[in-house]
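[[Encoded backbone]]
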Amino acid sequence: MLQLLRLLADGRFHSGEELGALLGISRSAVWKQLQLLHEMTGLALFKVRGKGYRLEHPISLLSPEVLCSQLASLQLHIEERVDSTNAMAMRLLARQEPPLLVLAEAQTAGRGRRGRQWCSPYGANLYFSLAIGIDRSATQLQALSLVVGVAVLRVLRRAGVSDIGLKWPNDLLAGGKKIAGILLELSGDPADICNVVIGVGINVNMLSGPDIDQAWTSIQLETKRQVDRTELAIALAEEFRCVLGLHRDEGFAAFHEEWEANHLWQDREVRLISGVHAVAGIALGVTGDGALRLQVNGEEQVFSGGELSLRLQHDS
């Protein structure tokens, strides 16, 4: 099935005869495989008499060979479909030592912060979960989601996304629309040795998302070109190697200035929401440990992460 999909990934027409010859099966078997492919992936397939079959859009599939070659220092798990890469990484940590990286072509139960669903169509976006070990928890966990945001920001800028910035504590917006999100999950004792799964979802080549309940965009929509998801995964893993090492040695201080320089809502009126409660104020930036600084009724107050959600004050 995956071999057939790789033949169709270029988005061009391929005749049933051609596909059958390459796969060593009959034309009728090709048609049955195509039907199964559509059922399993949800990808739209077109059939035109005299031309053959093609996907609605070209797709960029992950290349296990290239990934294993370029990321040899990591235990790689490259899946066609998982519930969520974070959930799989957590399960793997029960029997494997970090570092390990889980990538997938699709997620059936992708999730973001506060239990929200993360749209995860087949072969469209990057579903990336890196599990690392932490042995100095207080230092290495300090503002970790903000450090991860800086790494993702750098990678997206190199991919050609220019109008992009950070939204505290763990989202990235391009042109005011969400393009990436971060979800950190801990395994073990945060006061001692523990593991953390760094989950990153990036909208890469997604062109439509009818079930998404907020403004969103993708790298392809921003740059008008398809992105190689394998290259993007490698670039992100390499950037994490650099920033996590620096964060381990120097803490958030090494990233504080860069984060604030890219904070989209710096000095703007915002609402900080926690459950049914909301606090209105002006965003002043973040503290040395990544907490949000707000000017509330003329006085500065500090708020840590958790189940907090930040919105612009007049954002409907």
About this structure: Residues 124 and 206 are 5 Å apart (CA to CA). The longest strand covers residues 177-188.
